[in-house]
Amino acid sequence: GAVVSQHPSRVICKSGTSVKIECRSLDFQATTMFWYRQFPKQSLMLMATSNEGSKATYEQGVEKDKFLINHASLTLSTLTVTSAHPEDSSFYICSAVGTGARSQPQHFGDGTRLSIL
Amino acid sequence: DAKTTQPPSMDCAEGRAANLPCNHSTISGNEYVYWYRQIHSQGPQYIIHGLKNNETNEMASLIITEDRKSSTLILPHATLRDTAVYYCIVSPYSNSGYALNFGKGTSLLVTP
Q1: What does the CA dihedral B43, B49, B55, B58 come to, rounded to 10 degrees?
Q2: How many CB atoms lie within 10 A of CB A99?
Q3: What's the pLDDT tens digit per position in B85-95?
């Protein structure tokens, strides 16, 4: 089945550091990728929608200058958390959907657990 | 997006069928029913989806009522590894650019 790879799986870093998370679709081309965030004991919340070759669309309340998204190819999207602070600690998850059948499902990466000290 | 209603938690004995209900009474004609599950500390895993007809794959069966206002996910022989949070989501077709609206889901506990 479709595979989405997310890297790294876990990051622990100091406050003020910028962290880049990669999301790759391994066996299909993804025109659209989504970035979600999940806090403990809560459900996934959409942060932004990323379309290949264009600027990402951010959800209300998500700072585009803090969460930089690049979707430069049909198989790779990156999320950079700039100048991360402890409140940015969360589980970040990407998903991708292919260019084929309209109803094909989104596939998710295994997430990146970000801990800011 | 149409909203869904799921019971917050359910228990199921190992080896028995797990039947997870979902109410989506405001579903639109162009919206599919998708089921995902999330095992602790992992990304959501796609299970199955359907529009009108019942669907079956190697993981589960999806029963959608004729009026499409509710559905049931069936895990025919639950195992301990099926313990997870199960999300029922209604959405227009995935590659239209619509993100999935995850509600609170049903926490399924499979017991020995």
Answers
A1: -20
A2: 13
A3: 999 999 876 55
